[in-house]
Automatic annotation (TrEMBL):
GO terms for molecular function: transmembrane transporter activity. It comes from Ligilactobacillus ubinensis. This is ABC transporter substrate-binding protein/permease. Keywords: Amino-acid transport, Cell membrane, Membrane, Signal, Transmembrane, Transmembrane helix, Transport. InterPro entries: AA_ABC_transptr_permease_3TM (IPR010065), ArtM/GltK/GlnP/TcyL/YhdX-like (IPR043429), MetI-like (IPR000515), MetI-like_sf (IPR035906), Solute-binding_3/MltF_N (IPR001638). SMART domains: PBPb (SM00062). One of its GO terms (biological process) is amino acid transport. Residues 1-30 form the signal peptide. It comes from the Bacteria. GO terms for cellular component: ATP-binding cassette (ABC) transporter complex.
Length: 503
């Protein structure tokens, strides 16, 4: 009951913020403009003390970038490994706090940093001048060149960056490599994707001619896939922008200084090249030897568990809120009707992915303790409620007015009429449509993977990055979704048949 109460409260809060966020933002901007000079001068940086006070260092990264950060099975358990993981662990140890890792899409990392979902980003991020406008960076801790990965069969065809005229080059969305393709590979077009393993799939399927990435990462993919080949792209890059550095929220001077102390120690002792790089290579070799899909069944099982949890809870709250919205929309009260119409049209008119990210990064900025799983459930529930409301409304309006009049003539009040006459008949009429919504919800819940929720799609991406295989994990995931939705479809059809029989 406590969980249900908490989830209901969060749903109501999210609903309120969706309506009033624009007004809150306007007020905040006005307030900021009137007191910006005083706030800048009066506030002091407490980033380091805040981390030490809470006892955790929350690090954001995208664990699909070997040898910097990726996943491997260690003693039967899935663990994050790689150069950046070692640096993050060392940094947390120097601060005397516990390391907490948040894995999400690369292009969401800076958003997570700016909304204080993470304390720092350690994800082989290049400290470009554009990024420096929004966040602060530590000193560069590792430097590598830019390499282009191609299919080995095209080795004679592509020999330098000028060989790709009128071709498509892949690069990770939001990365320096993406901008380099646009600026320095004239005649070539760029295709951006959030995950490198998806870019490798695009390469092997002929969707792109090559993929531009960091030297160490390119060599990692090539060493684990005999069908790939990599060469130095010889890009013209600023040495101050090409290396990897830690990113921090703007003004986090004390935390940046602490990070620089850790980096200085690592560089002085050459730990990264002597220890971290060889360790990453060791994990990559052990992974490539045991990268059969059977050994990763726990990934898919865990992902399915999260997917079902999200779906079941979202169906419950989406159905409850959908009933309320449907009754509000058919209500004679003009205010209730207008609010319901506004909500339904707004939710149906915006993508679910945007809603998920807004709830997590937007509402999550006001509620710092809001977990990614809870944010995903709230967003999916709010989205489902809008569609369920329309289904229920159409079902209620499909009941002949004579049914209502007959119930009222028998002495039933409005509440009893709806409870015993209208709703039971409406449920029978809308059962197929509700069933379709529930089945759709199972598939659409995969979108929550963009904020780091460990659902089935998220786990699939981990398997792809760990095994260096792209298509097979997707095929397995597709079959799991099919089995679940087909089973649910048969289950719903059974009850639909019973309801028709009862008529």
């Amino acid at each position: 009951m406590n969980i249900l109460k908490k989830m209901t409260a969060l749903l109501m809060l999210a609903l309120a913020i969706l309506f009033f966020a624009p007004f809150m933002q306007t007020k905040a901007v006005a307030s900021e403009s009137s007191s910006s000079s005083s706030s800048v001068s009066s506030t002091t940086d407490s980033s380091l003390s805040d981390v030490k006070k809470k006892g955790t260092l929350v690090v954001g990264l995208s664990a699909d970038y070997p040898p910097y950060e990726f996943t491997a099975k260690v003693n039967g358990e899935t663990k994050y490994v790689g150069i950046d993981i070692e640096i993050a662990r060392k940094f947390a140890k120097d601060l005397g706090v516990k390391l907490v890792i948040k894995n999400m899409d690369f292009d969401s990392l800076l958003v997570a940093l700016e909304t204080h979902k993470v304390d720092t980003v350690i994800s082989a991020m290049n400290p470009t001048s554009e990024r420096r406008k929004s966040v602060d960076f530590s000193n560069i801790y590792y430097t590598g060149g830019k390499y282009i990965v191609i299919n080995k069969k095209d080795k004679a065809k592509y020999k330098n960056k000028d060989s790709f005229e009128n071709k498509t080059i892949g690069a990770q969305t939001g990365s320096l490599e993406y901008n380099l393709v646009q600026k320095q590979m004239k005649g070539a077009s760029v295709k951006g994707l959030a995950k490198l393993n998806n870019l490798i799939i695009a390469l092997q399927s002929g969707k792109v001619a090559g993929v531009l990435m960091e030297e160490a990462t390119a060599k990692a993919y090539v060493s684990n896939n005999s069908n790939l080949y990599a060469f130095n792209a010889k890009m013209n890059v600023d040495t101050n922008e090409t290396g990897a550095a830690m990113a921090f929220s703007k003004g986090s001077t004390t935390l940046v200084n602490a990070a620089n102390k850790t980096i200085s120690k690592l560089k002085k002792e050459n730990v990264i090249n002597k220890k971290y790089v060889p360790n990453a290579a060791k994990y990559m070799k052990s992974t490539s030897k045991n990268n059969t899909m059977i050994s990763y069944w726990t990934y898919f099982a865990k992902g399915l568990e999260y997917t079902l949890i999200i779906t079941v809870i979202s169906v419950f709250f989406g159905f409850l809120l959908g009933i309320i919205l449907a009754l509000m929309r058919i209500s004679n009260a003009k205010i209730l009707h207008t609010l319901a119409v506004m909500y339904i049209e707004f939710i149906r008119g915006t993508p679910l992915m945007v809603q998920v990210m807004f709830v997590y990064f937007g509402i999550g900025a006001l509620i710092q303790s809001l977990p990614a799983l809870a944010a995903g459930i709230i967003a999916v529930s709010l989205n489902s409620a809008a569609y369920v409301a329309e289904v229920i409304r159409s079902g209620i309006e499909s009941i002949a007015t004579g049914q209502t009049e007959a119930a009222r003539s028998l002495g039933m009040n409005q509440k009893q009429t709806y409870r015993y006459v209208v709703i039971p008949q409406a449920i029978k009429n809308i059962w197929p449509a509700l069933g379709n919504e529930f089945i759709t919800l199972i598939k659409e819940s995969s979108i929550v993977s963009v904020i780091g929720v460990g659902d089935l799609m998220y786990q699939t991406q981990l398997v792809q990055s760990a095994t260096y295989k792209g298509v097979l994990p997707l095929f397995i995931t597709m079959m799991i979704y099919f089995i679940v939705t087909f089973t649910l479809s048969k289950f719903l059809n059974y009850f639909e048949g019973k309801m028709k029989h009862e008529q």
